[in-house]
Amino acid sequence: MRKAEALIFEKGQPGRRAVDLPACDVPAPDAAALIPDAYRRKTPATLPEVSQLELMRHYTALSRRTFGVDTGFYPLGSCTMKYNPKINEDAGRLDGFAALHPLQDEATAQGALAVLAAMEQYLAEIAGMDAVTMQPAAGAHGELTGIKLIRAYHRHRGENRTKVIVPDSAHGTNPATAAVCGLEIVEIKSHADGAIDLDALRAAVGSDTAALMLTNPSTLGLFERNIREVAAIVHAAGGLLYYDGANANAIMGVSRPGDMGFDVIHFNLHKTFATPHGGGGPGSGPVGVKSGLIPFLPTPVVVAADGGYRLDYDRPLSIGKVLSFYGNFGVIVRAYAYIRAMGPDGLLAASRDAVLNANYCLSRLKEKYHSPFDRFCMHECVLTSKNQKPYGVRTLDIAKRLLDYGYHPPTIYFPLIVEEALMIEPTETESKETLDGFIEAMLKIAAEAEEDAAIVKNAPATTVVGRLDEAAAARKPVVRWQP
Amino acid sequence: MTRSYLPHTAVDRQAMLAAIGVAATEDLFADIPAGLRLDRPLALPAALAEQELARHLRDLAGQNASLGEYACFLGAGAYDHYIPSVVDHVIGRSEFYTAYTQYQPEISQGYLQALWEYQSMICALTGLDVANASLYDGGTALAEAAMMACAATGRQEVVVARAVHPHYRIILGTYAADRGLTVKEAPFADGATGVAGLAELAGPATAAVIVQTPNFFGCLEDVAAAAELAHKAGALLVVAADPVALGVLEAPGALGADIVVGEGQPLGLPVSFGGPYLGFFAATEKLMRKMPGRIVGQTTDFEGTRGFVLTLQAREQHIRREKATSNICSNEALCSLAAAVYLTAVGREGLREVAELCLKKAHYAHAELVNRKVCQPVFGAPFFQEFAVRCAKPVAAVNAALRREKIIGGLDLGRYYPELAGCMLLCVTEKRTKAEIDRLVRTMEAVS
Q1: Which residues of B touch A260 (CB under 8 A)?
Q2: By three-state DSSP, how is residue A457 classified?
Q3: Is it the case that residue A1 has pLDDT exceeding 70?
Q4: What structural domains and CATH numbers belong to chain A?
């Protein structure tokens, strides 16, 4: 079971290749005559030299040492690991989309512009916003874009607002984004249940407040019941409300951030709209805004013209660009296919089932695992290992033991305001049988913790490597192969 | 409702509600104030069955002129290279593409190893010590490099060559805007960035000097000279490079670059109307702990078996929050995997061969156009696979004529550089055949 896979550099022989290249069919001088000697590479880069079969075996072996949603249940909180429909993969690969150059004449790319325009419209409707840009490449990139839009908005009104309010339960990207946008972070404490402390918020806002960044449902999987009061407090101070759409899978067709009072939102197409996470991207993080922020959107903007679409670059108040072209188009096509397959009733059903699944897990697991909040959750639930602590079993151990049962563990140690947190997001695409299997495994682990803690603390026993020495990796980093 | 992506039957839902102890799903949404519940269906088109959706998507895709039917001579940041069949077969394995970031290394060893091998290949290409697992694209990688250089030097100014991709420079401006950073642009002459122009702008406040090679015009820059003048000013040299060109061009790290970034799309990714692409990012060891993005490191498990983990996470937002080196979280991992498979497929000799094919075909096309007096050369600097020519007729008219011959022509440079109005930037990759190049020349000849 425990075995390292040889590196690609340790396979093959000098002179082997995995693709045959054509001969040069034009008369031309030697490369040496075309590139000045001082600029020319003298020794080829040390890349692998393997046959095509060796290549396929290598990457097939690596794929088998990787766990995806198609491998098994992946209840990773905050990440919305729902099923990635296969027709969406086919869609992204259609020649008319994949083999389309971004700078081609707009007249020859009308189908692609139609997809972008439709997605802007669909997401604006789902969010309750007035306009959407598809340009950001990921959720954090959407945050960056959104905060820059907010800065531009205030600046245009002659106000230099320098502070962003972030609850202590927020995703790490929120404060990081505010910081890279040159803003100061004001962190406010949440109530124990993750709700915003209205008094703390009132004390924090002022004429220097640029925005409040908020996730709703919160990172604890709970709906912010006071959202209207929160919005009123921030707006009264002249600030704007930013919606981190990481948890939007709970609210499609149920409630809209725009109606709650949010001014700017990003969605994660790779969470809510079923595009693959890809092992850490490519994602897509479209940003929606209320009408007052439209002039500042990144360029170009897709506009309707002459019965078709064109790209408008003439936007004097624009923040500029956040990506070289129009967004992660291949991902956007996949999300478009998802929305068209689901329809309004399907999206609503997805959010309802996501919430049902999370509450089902919560209701069955809270007998054995400590549930810090006595209320229904939204699309994810937070538990802790408090009941297992007396046996010396920590959240990390429970996560590692789940690997032996064939499950990807929940998100652990987040949100930070809950000690030893386990955050479970089942998503709507999982059946009751799958949830029951997972719940049984979690209950068994709780029993093991009481009866035979060592088996939990020494887990995993069945994976290709055991627990890895992460401290050594960071102390003396080995970050590349050297011949 | 039961759909192919929604497994619950009415019976399942009832059983689950009973287990929870509520009568209806609505009860679970009691926390949402009544006034905030949407009281109408979303105004979206009705659901399509799979075969209806397949047809609809084919129709939409069919409204675009794809490079499958047109011979493409357009580059300018997105390149129509051949993608070996193995690339899509590997990244189409759903263990890879349906995975999340590798936070549980014991069940992510395969992906972690693939990313670590990718980092190694980028280090080999760029001649630097450490590469991250990816950034969003070439433009954002360049902007992140500039931000990192400012953080590393404690300086507030960057000098960027005007011959760097115009979109990259706009992104740089957007990223720099809210941080009080100043961006100065250095001129070009004869297609390349003069050392004198850079030297005039670089000084004690300069954090980074940024050049691109081949630059936006396809011309090669003198990286060694840029490194020398950057270092003399106490600044870092950032080079944006085309990874395929690095098959024939000296590794910028070997010429003194401190940070090398670039657009990884040429490495096995489709042009895909501008994304998803891949920002690659490499730096010297000294800068390792200031780098943005994820980095995979090698380690061992408690029994001594080699394994891989995400490392140096103290740089990242989920640990450091507002003190992180960047706010990046999801990046372009699957594109890195594609690039690694591409580089493995072409291999040590093949990358040089691909680069030489591009180089030779571009020079053949250039020679034919110039020698036949179809158009005039614009610059004299040595070039890789792109070059500028001045056309007798407006660029739009030339491109319209080319389109009738199933050719996608070049970029109108006047759009970005007013002084280059009437000039076209053409790109010739290894995918273009002699017959296609000759057709381009004949058609342009007929228009001129």
Answers
A1: 36
A2: helix
A3: no
A4: 8-64 (no CATH), 87-341 (3.40.640.10)
